[in-house]
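Q: I have 252 residues here and want to know how they pack in 3D. Can you give me a structure?
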Amino acid sequence: MTASEEPPSFRLAYVPGVTPDKWVRIWNERLPDVPLSLTQVSAAEAGGVLLGGDADAGLVRLPVDRTVLSAIPLYTEITVVVVPKDHLVTAVDEVTVEDLADELVLHPLDDVLGWERPPGRPAIERPATTADAVELVAAGVGVLVVPLSLARLHHRKDLTYRTVTDAPASGVALSWPEDAHTDLVEEFIGIVRGRTVNSTRGRRQPQAQPKAERTDTAGARRKPAAGKPAGGARRGSNSTKGGGRRGRPRRR
């Protein structure tokens, strides 16, 4: 490594609700000499961070722009409704979108569910963030429908949640720029896919030596010593037809 070269490192972006701790721990065990840095970004910013070169890969929410980004779907989250603990919804284990028809359903500007039309009655103003919407739920203003991980991220003792069986779901994926599929990106792909440390799948293999340049010492023929016939023939053996000695006529 020259003085101008920087040591290798890996930059991973991740969106709120995603927990990369397990994968980061495995990375540190397998590649202790390659530091991994984490940067949390909003779901809306994730694509721009990757394309701008500010991260090597990201744990993002689907969909992504597949014309410029590669993505490996990892899992799809359950969708829940966040309500006060004394809300009527808490009487059941799960609800449907229709069950929320009479509720004021908050729809924050950073919503990740991509509703065509959110359920329930709309609020006069949309909260700026999911965190702001959770505060409004706690104040009794309305309810909030989000992926389970965001409900847990913004957990409060006075709030709870129930599954919404027919709401849109949010998928999480590992994504990176199509033109920046590096060896370190491939290493992280292997980690999230559960490949073992000895797996060579996806890694670049050394090119095979050209056939003309191979040295096969085991099968190489030895040159005959000076004065010895090629092919291992014994001295004095007769190669003429009939088996007689060279120059001696046959008996009739």
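Q: Anything worth noting?
A: Residues 204-220, 230-249 have pLDDT under 50 and may be disordered. Strands lie at 10-14, 36-40, 57-61, 69-76, 79-84, 94-95, 105-106, 143-147, 159-164, 171-177.
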